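Wed. Picked up where I left off yesterday with VOC family protein. The coffee machine is broken again, so keeping this brief.
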Amino acid sequence: MSVELNHTIIHCRDRRQSAEFLAGILGLEVGPEWGPFLPVATGNGVTLDFATVDPKTIAPQHYAFLVPEEEFPAMFARIQETGVRFYADPARTRPGEINRNDGGHGVYFEDPSGHYMEIITRPYGSGEPSAGA
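Structure written out below (tokens, as returned):
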């Protein structure tokens, strides 16, 4: 049997706000409530279970999503429509830019609870390095 990630819990200020924010960006659906969780399922079967907690206990995490190249422009447009800041790099030294790492496209942005989200179209190390990335 191979080991696969099945789900992870994402602590947030407001589970509905955070789940709908990410689902909207990625073009996914928010599932029905299950106990204290509000799930968003990804295409590879991993469920992100959003749970509202005391904001003082939230430790910002990083979540990266591999997305189809042809869907990146629409997702990026939805990020821009939210008005959140976005960056080409994890150090946040290239605000307002996207990266072209490995011959694809990528961008980092924060969700409503301060988690650092990333969408990429190519896994790191899978293609040609790009200048300035």
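Quick read: The longest helix spans residues 15-26.
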